[in-house]
Amino acid sequence: MAVIKNVAIAGASGNIGPHVLKALLEANFNVTVLTRSQASKDYGAKVKVVEADFNSVNSLTAALENQDAVISTIGKSGSEKQRLLIDAAVTAGVYRFVPSEFGSCTTSPKVADLPFYSTLATVRNYLIEKAASSALTYSIVAPGCFMEYLLAFPAAIDFKNHSVAFIDGGNTRVSVTSLATFARAVAAVFDHSDETENRVVYVSEAILSQRQLLELARNVNPEIQWTIRDIKSADILKAGLDAIASGGDGLQAYGNILLATVFGEAYSSAYDTNDNSLLGVEVITEERLKALVADRLDQTVRPNTPN
């Protein structure tokens, strides 16, 4: 089995990177953070920080010297530049590359030509090609929808206004994983390098639907009256595509595209077959789910509570 000990992270200061950094340190990996400026953030004494030009393969190659693996947690705006990072990993002799492709149905052929997804597909295909012609290997880690995002996203279920718009009936099953569990799974991927080589690795802490979320909320507080309506994923997707075509609000447009594909009944967002056992991921209990939902309901009230 290939031994991975030295791991570099690109995008460690974003939304996902800090969780991965913490999990790698707790798993006793030697971690290097690739940054555009060393003065940007203090990552602690155990972390090596290397400044690199993300537009230069030579600069990135030098930064990746002696690294066994690279994980990219780069956000959407820099996603396509991962190809330079992949080139640098090949040149530097890196063994494993994990791209920034953490979602529900990103590898489905049904979304390959859609905005955002097409960029992920371009990077993924480039990575696969490089792996076929070099010593570089890859793992694409699919955690489904992040639990924190799902519970905070009003379009899935609006805890504040006690409303929900069921997409395609609200019964679409979606794999969900917390950021912390996902990050520990990434560390476990590096510990199981042979079993996770050159494939998609599926992580699923829970499988939920909109209707299940509403039922959990009703169990937590039966007195709340909910406003319910129905909407079709095809209409949401069209709204997103039309907005992009007309140069409208990009954030809202991409949000609609993600919403339609994650909760649309035509897409595969539930990982009934997964790698939980290999990676040491335990399924979350119903009581824990109720506690998370209760916390969201409580948060919608607290800001209005007098001091």
TrEMBL record:
User: Among its keywords, does the record have NADP?
Assistant: yes
Pfam families of this UniProt entry?
NmrA
NmrA-like domain: which residues?
5-217
GO MF terms here are: oxidoreductase activity
Q: Which Gene3D superfamilies match?
A: NAD(P)-binding Rossmann-like Domain
Q: Which UniProt keywords apply?
A: NADP, Oxidoreductase
Query: Can the keyword Chaperone be found in this entry's annotation?
Result: no
Q: Where is the signal peptide?
A: none
InterPro entries per the UniProt record, alphabetical: NAD(P)-bd_dom_sf, NmrA-like, NmrA/Isoflavone_reductase-like, PCBER-like
Top-level taxonomic group: Eukaryota
PANTHER family cross-referenced by the UniProt entry: CIPA-LIKE, PUTATIVE (AFU_ORTHOLOGUE AFUA_1G12460)-RELATED, NMRA-LIKE FAMILY PROTEIN
Q: What is this protein called?
A: Predicted protein
User: Organism source for this protein?
Assistant: Hypocrea jecorina (strain QM6a) (Trichoderma reesei)
